[in-house]
Amino acid sequence: MSGQWNLAVRPEPFWLEEVFACMNYVYALDSEEWLNKNDSWNRRQKEEFLLPYRSYRGAMRTRLQPILEQYSLLGGYVDSTPRDRESLRSYDPPMMSFLTQMQFVLEAEEHPCEEELEQMLNDAFQRMLSSETQESAEAEEPVIRGLSDVMAALEGWDGSDADKFKLLRLYSERREVMEQLWSLQGPAEEIGRDCLKSVQERYEACMEKLRNPEEVERLLNAVGLACEGNNIGQITPAVMLYDRIMLQLRETPGKTAQFQANLHLGLETFYLHQSRQEELYNDEHLLAGLKALGDPTRLKILRQLVEQPCYLQEMAKELELTPATVLHHLGVLMSQSLIEIQLTTEKKKVYYQVNKQGLEEVSQGILQLTLTREERETQVQEELRKQSRNVHTGEQFQTWTM
Fold first, then answer.
1. Cα separation of 236 and 248, whole Å?
2. What mean pLDDT is reported for the chain?
3. Most exposed of 53, 328, 364, 372 (fewest Cβ within 10 Å)?
4. Are 1 and 342 contacting, i.e. CB atoms less than 8 angstroms apart?
5. Average pLDDT estimate for 259-280
6. If we measure between CA atoms, which residue out of 385, 11, 359, 395 comes closest to residue 217?
7. Radius of gyration of the chain (CA)
8. Percent of the chain predicted with pLDDT > 70
9. To 10 degrees, the CA torsion angle through 167, 234, 263, 181?
């Protein structure tokens, strides 16, 4: 049974997330590996592509630095350590993960009472230290009620020692951190709105597409996330995380088989997906697909998923690997659209399944080697026309992605 999303579009980014994204991430803006990668763009084109985001980040940092000096507690959670963005789950800096979990609380019109806030904070850390982040395939879902529970969960958490220390510190300071985040919201909004002019053209182009449900459906369909039941929520445009699609789901209180969804969608995701589709059969795309398939563990994962969809712990146990190792291989397969994510109404279960279309594309890429350039161009144009017809005739897609 296919699901349905009803997502309202926010007019602005989540400014607290933008603050820490600008202050924390080195990311692709400064990555020589990304700039030198041999694909359809040359280095000059990539530099021009990144220029507005570098201007935005620079303006935000200049304005934010003196502000954050007034929030010494929050300033302690800023670091510029590069993060590996290749895997499916690269651990964000602890503050970024915390903001994602607490966005609904931070942006609520009224602050929760002390008892409710404590429960929300414990729930947030429970999700941040879930069994999917544990080194052992046998790890149980942690229950967070206090500092000792956090310490126990961190013993099996597959993250760096520096991040473990910051998570422990963050839990210890959680109430004070929330107070400072609430206080920082006003200045963050003012600075963010002013700096947004650095990427105004990109922002307006993205917002125009976000207001078109068919455009959003087409994009999400292309990257492979299926769902069951009816789901409500919001789409949050993201500037600094310009190529990111991240979906957070929470169970809706009092609703059966319904989730509250928060989809963070980077400004360039529509454009980058279009570029990827246009280059679908080039040599770099084919080589990346073949590399993804050229590993025995990943082939075992695909064979396992062909039989039936599985969740992470099942695969880790069957393959006798840690969840973190399996997540790495899933990330490689996911990056080439060879697997999909299936969300179910079963609590806290995220299933993975084979994306047959993705596998067929790799196969078709190999077959392209037998065609002339003119024949390849004709085939690509026909495929793009077919996709356009599907959208404009109202075809209902069942697969969603992040």
1. 11
2. 78
3. 372
4. no
5. 75
6. 395
7. 21
8. 70
9. -20
